[in-house]
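A further point concerns the way the authors explain their paired sequence and structure data. An entry of this sort, consisting of the sequence and the corresponding C-alpha cells, reads as follows:
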Amino acid sequence: MNGEEGATIATDTANQLHRSALRLFRVLQATRPAKGLTLSKVGVLGYLYRDRATTSTELAAYLRVRPQSLTRLLADLERRELISSRPNGEDRRENMLEITEAGTKLLIEDIRGQRVKLAQVIEKELTSAEKELLRIAAVLMDCIAEKTEEQTAPLSKSQWKKP
C-alpha cells in the first residue's frame, strides 16, 4: 500500500467514524429523559465533575465559547443547585465553580441511563465476536480522542496572548 492509498483509507475511515459517532450521539440525545439537562449543561457538569473547581473563563475555553455565553446557563445550574460558586482566592474578579452533590447525582444518573441503553442493544443485537470488536474499537476511539485533544487543547489562561 502506498502513501496515497493509506491516506485515502484513513480519510474514508475518518469520514465513517465521524458519521457513526454523530449518529449514535443524536440517537442517544433523542432518548434522554427531559430533566432540563441540555447538552451544554451536561458538558458543564461533566467538566466540573472531572476537573473539580474552575473559573467560568477556563470553562468557556474548554467548551470553546465566550464566557458571556455561559452566563445564563451557569445561573440556571446554580439556581437549580447543581453547581455552586465561591470567591476565587487567586483572583477576586472571578468565582470558582464547583459541581454540587445534587449535580453529581443528576449527571451520574444521566450517564448511567445512556450506558444502560447501549448495553441492552449491544447484548441483544451483537454476536460475541462483534462485542469484542466493539470493545477494541472503543479503546481505539479513546486513543484517537486523546491524541486529537492533545493537538487541539484549548489555551489555558496563562497561554493567552494579549494583542
In short: The domain at 26-124 is CATH 1.10.10.10 (Arc Repressor Mutant, subunit A). The first strand starts at residue 54 and ends at 55.
